[in-house]
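Reading group handout, session on sequence-to-structure problems. Before we discuss, look at one worked example. The prompt was deliberately terse, the way you'd type it at a terminal:

> structure AMP-dependent synthetase/ligase domain-containing protein

The input record follows.
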Amino acid sequence: MAGDAAAFVFSRLPHPDTAAAFVDAATGGSLSFGALRRAALSLASGLRLGLGLRRGDAVLILSPNSLLLPQVILGVLAAGGVAVVIAADATAAEISAAAHGAGAVMIVAAPEVAGKVAGVGVPLLLTSRSPDPRTLSAEELIEGGDPTALAAPEASDVAFVAYSSASKTVAMTHADLIAAAAGLSDEGRVCLASLPMCSVHGLPLLAIGLPAAGVTTVLVSPPSDPKAARDAVAAHGATDVVAAPEAAAVLAAPMPQDGKLSSLRRVIVAPAPLAAEARQEFRRRLPWVELTEMYGTPENETVRASEEVQMAPAQLGAPVLTQTDAAAVIQ
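And the output record:
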């Protein structure tokens, strides 16, 4: 088994690798599994050989979900860096505290949130190209990098640190990330994801687990109403949804039975469980959908899965990302 998380993902990509790994629902743009691998390795080369990133250096990543974000995360990991994340809507003070608390040597930020890091005093790399020729972006490093394998970090090296506000909430090694994703194998599935990738559960699941499982991940905004949620599932033929509790509950809101959720097989909720009433309503209205709730930190995580799943309206195969059918606590 690969010793670092990025190599693990790359070793599990489907063949041929031309299928979409990520789709941006807002723009219609997509990124294939092969392009994801080439981009991440090119960025890793640029970070190591061009910018001098060293093994164990912390890189704070600040961005909403985008097609560039998984390329950046896997590129940092492949370069031997530590991916440090904080919510894109964090305040400037929270970002500064996280950057200094983690000892970040660099911040990679989306242009729309880069203004909040101006006073941090840490070098900035934008995710996407800027019209200002004085700035550098990960996108340019990807285009100019050499996608050749670099010396891999050790499995015991810290790979991922997540901050909530200004407090560190989790730290995971490459081995931890691999263990969290190693049991997933669901090539050909389609997952709608509104959970932020820059979060405690978002990075291990969306940037590591789903690509390694061969799942096509469609990046969407949290649905604003039940109709929007159902339309998104139907438009992409989604078999899975990964969302925060509020967004997941919208799927089970009272609506006419129109068949738009018939492809759905599993909903994963994080970083907190559904409220008891919302869970009961979900089970009543979507009895064929497996509900998995993930909460706590990945090191001491509770996973509660549906105890019973009825026959789907139209059989599409086994549920994705199979877990135990009873509530389980994973240490």
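Points for discussion. First: Confidence is low (pLDDT under 50) at residues 314-331. Second: Residues 222-330 form a domain with the Rossmann fold fold (CATH 3.40.50.980).
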